[in-house]
Amino acid sequence: MKILVCISHVPDTTSKINFTAENAEFDSNGVQFVINPYDEFSLARAMWFKEKQGASVTVITVGDASTEPSLRKSLAIGADDAIRIDAQATDGITVAKQLAEVIKSNAYDLILTGRESIDYNGATVPGALATLLDYNFINACVGLEIEGTSVTASKEIDGGTETLGTELPAVIAGQKGLVEEKDLRIPNMRGIMMARKKPLQVLPGIEATSSTKDVSFEKPAEKSACKIVTSVDELIDVLHNEAKVI
Amino acid sequence: MSVLVFAESSEGKFKKIAFEAVSYGKKIAQQLSTQLIALTINAENASELSTYGANKIIKVNNETLSTFNAKVVSSIIAQAATQENAEVVIIDSSSNGLYVAPAVATILDAGYVSNVIEAPSNTSPFTVKRKTFSNKAFSHTEISSAVKVIGLAKNSFGVVASDEAATEEDFSPEIANSGVNSTAINKNAGKVSIADADIVVSGGRGLKGPENWNLIEDLAEVLGGATACSKPVSDLGWRPHNEHVGQTGKPVASNLYIAIGISGAIQHLAGVNASKVKVVINIDPEAPFFKAAEYGIVGDAFEVVPQLIEKLKEFNSKN
């Protein structure tokens, strides 16, 4: 089984978000970038298929050379090779088009992604990619087993889970629950050394124009101070009469 | 030209966000001086949508659609958009909506923006405001394609009454090959889901162990809310991961969010700050959550919460 894991290179979850160029651009100054946490769950599951079922694992991202540390980290975790599509990740559908172009000529059986990235949160790439490729698609996946070409997946739904069956080739968008937190991988020194020798291929992107553009950003308005109440009676009173939420 | 809204239902009943999405669609239809068309699939009271401004309701009734299938539903929405010559297609950014909308946009060769929270500030260029950076910021995003797909965030625009005399039509789209088949659905019977809840009661490590979760459950029950937890609590295995709310867990956009024994890490706050009113109960007055909350009580959860449950029972019996 050939697995492709799509990785997004995003600001760390603890990052303070700031903008520059009169709020037109994200300010990456001083920001630590990481593998998108949702993608990390999918990567960890891919490693399980590699170790238990002999799958090969390729990781891919769309972006400039600054995204390569996340690909190297994925290689250090155990992916076999990496691809960077040298193009700007301008919006989800454009990223999906760039990915689809590479996938069409490489016949991957299973495409794993995260449900969304924690920067733009569009939750667009996996669904758009599956549609472009006409592959089966399961979103918000919290459990995944594969026998031959037969896929059994558990999907989170509002208030529970749904068991779904489908066939490869498929796009599966993972999230928390796909693997246990303890099964997330931290690269060890040997993995880091080996990653340096693994192939990282840079491919040119295709011409693709985005239909959406972030023209400006803003941060949430400063919050007024928290009102400290001293009794449960007072809390119920303010929630009922002031906030009107109970 | 028209605006099309997919009004989502479950087991025949409209979800609350369906009314919000139709209200939002009405606003855009007014901005574009065009009519609003609502699409329903196996909904019982489709005519209800006229009270939120739908001019025309196109109804799909098909027994094979009783279980939600993303590929089939996205194909139906795209067919409806084509038939109605829709310039704007609105799909809510709930879990099912997020599942289908990227496919709809791809089929229609449309630009797609999810998690939108306001009516367009401008219709030329078409500009919407959406949540980004896990609720730490907003983006004003322009959509330049002829057809635009908009994902509406829950509890953002609100439900607005707008009476129209709607016409109703049956719609019989082609049913796509499903590709993915549902074999079992496991729902927590009788429990309010975090996605649907107006009130969410959430517990953190301050509760000291899973054996104390009756405090969270009892408070949620008396408020008619859902239960949730912080990331450490789910990582420790005290609660299932599907209750984890925060940046990498479930997003919360409820009317009231009560955080008990949760310090308020930046990742947690990012996931819950779309809630309208946040209450924090924490023994540590320096807990960061106090900076994010509207109301707070500095106190021991093991004393405050039982009192709160008792007083809310009294409150409920009077109101």
Number of DSSP E strands of chain A: 15
CATH level 4 superfamily of the largest domain in chain B: HUPs
Helix content of chain A: 25-40%
Which stretches of chain B are poorly predicted, pLDDT < 50 over at least 5 residues?
none
Q: How does the major sheet of chain B shape up?
A: 7 strands, parallel
Count of DSSP-assigned helices of chain A: 6
Q: What sort of overall outline of chain B do the alpha carbons produce when their principal axes are compared? A: elongated
State which percent range the strand residues of chain B make up.
Answer: 25-35%
**Beta strand % of chain A:** 25-35%
Overview of this protein structure:
The complex is a heterodimer of chains A (246) and B (319). Chain A has helices at residues 37-53, 68-77, 92-104, 125-133, 189-197, 232-242, and strands at residues 2-6, 9-11, 19-20, 25-26, 33-35, 56-62, 81-86, 110-114, 136-147, 150-157, 160-167, 170-174, 200-204, 212-218, 227-228. Chain A is of the alpha/beta class. The relative contact order of chain A is 0.18. The mean pLDDT of chain A is 96. Chain B has 2 domains: 2-170, HUPs (Rossmann fold, 3-Layer(aba) Sandwich), CATH 3.40.50; 199-318, 3-Layer(aba) Sandwich (Rossmann fold). Chain B is α/β, with parallel strands linked by helices. In chain B, α2 (70-83) crosses α3 (95-108) and α4 runs parallel beside α8. The termini of chain B are far apart. Chain B has helices at 16-31, 70-83, 95-108, 214-223, 231-235, 266-272, 289-292, 301-318, and strands at 2-6, 9-10, 13-14, 35-41, 56-60, 86-92, 111-116, 122-123, 126-132, 137-143, 148-152, 167-170, 181-187, 199-203, 226-229, 256-260, 277-282, 295-298. A 7-stranded parallel β-sheet of chain B has the order 7-11-6-1-4-5-12, with helices on both faces. A 5-stranded parallel β-sheet of chain B has the order 15-14-16-17-18. The model of chain B has no long low-confidence stretch (mean pLDDT 96).
